[in-house]
Amino acid sequence: MKQTPPLSPSTFNGSSTYIATADLKLAVNAALTLQRPLLIKGEPGTGKTMLAEEVASALKMPLLQWHIKSTTKAQQGLYEYDAVSRLRDSQLGDAKVNDIRNYIIKGVLWQAFEAEEPTVLLIDEIDKADIEFPNDLLREIDRMEFYVYETRELIRAKHRPLVIITSNNEKELPDAFLRRCFFHYIAFPDAATMRSIVAVHHPNLQADLLAAALQSFYQIRSLPGLKKKPSTSELIDWLKLLLADGVSPAALYQSEENVLIPPLHGALLKNEQDLQLFERLVLMNRNHR
Predict the structure, then answer these.
(1) What per-residue confidence (pLDDT) applies to 251?
(2) For position 260, what pLDDT does the model report?
(3) What is the pLDDT of residues 142-179, one digit of tens each?
(4) Euclidean distance between CA atoms 167 and 163, whole angstroms
């Protein structure tokens, strides 16, 4: 069997716009070295999708994105045959019906396989699809080839893409699929890492405002029973709103004796159950003072 050319030996070292931990950089480079898909898991909002964009930019590789929905089928990543359009054109006497290739719609895997240079291929939120979806892609991702039955062609990858797969852990992935991937879990950033992330987006943020905002943010995240914990991206949005409204650090300052509902909390708490839970905590705190 014809061998697929390996990935270029570039190394990912992070970027000025994406704070990557040492473990995450190691995971990306391990996937490059092993020529295996990189499976990234973590809470929503921890930068999984953005990672693929930053890796592509840093390694100067084109990025192809496949955002998965609950109705997505694995075949769509390879190609689709538009039989309806061909039938309609035949009824209209269109000459292009004589070439079935005119009705083959190339999917993102096909585009990655035929690219003239190595690409980064993002398969985003794979856990949204049917449980059989990952297994249906095993052969194609493993062997870097697939067969087009309508045209009787074998499509082989000119260059092996770097496949980055994200999952929010909504459902378990098959063991056979996991064996073929290099896995990394993006842990939620600690306060020090979060400061570095915030600095990328708000480089001139007042130190005491950031300190008060982070204290309030992590206090909300630590609340037991929270249905949806606020994410990194929501913190960034919240800080933007605080700056726009000129909110002072004093309005955010909290202590064990003084728990506040933060201003513009709608950027952090996204459902009524969590908001009511937090309001009860504040009320209980006030009643015990």
Answers:
(1) 80
(2) 67
(3) 899 999 999 999 999 999 999 999 998 878 888 989 99
(4) 13
Helices within the chain (DSSP H only): 22-34, 48-58, 75-78, 83-91, 108-114, 133-136, 138-143, 175-179, 191-201, 207-221, 232-245, 272-287
HEC states along 119-150?
Answer: CEEEEECHHHCCCCHHHHCHHHHHHCEEEECC
Half-sphere exposure (Cβ direction) of 21: Cα atoms closer than 13 Å: 16
Contact (Cβ atoms closer than 8 angstroms) between residue 146 and residue 139: yes
Task: State the average pLDDT for the chain.
Answer: 87
User: What is the reported pTM?
Assistant: 0.85
Strands 145-148 and 153-156 turn out to be antiparallel
Per-residue pLDDT band at 9 (split at 50, 70, 90): low
228-232 long-range contacts (CB < 8 A, ≥24 apart) are 228/270, 228/271, 228/274, 229/43, 230/267, 230/268, 230/269, 230/270, 231/43, 231/44, 231/45, 231/46, 232/45, 232/46, 232/47, 232/188, 232/189, 232/194, 232/197
Q: Is the pLDDT of residue 288 over 80?
A: no
Residues 6+ apart with CB under 8 A from 109: 66, 77, 78, 121, 137, 140, 141, 146
pLDDT of residue 1: 47
Quick one: tokens of 55?
A: 């890796």
Buried-exposed string 130-160: b where 16+ CB fall within 10 A, e elsewhere:
eeebbebbeebbeebebebeeeeeebebbbb
A 10 A CB-CB count for 176 gives 11
* Alpha carbon distances (Å) from 174 to 130, 138, 178, 201, 227: 11, 10, 6, 37, 27
The average pLDDT across 214-222 equals 89
**Residue 76 pLDDT exceeds 60:** yes
Angle between helices 207-221 and 232-245 (to 10 degrees): 140
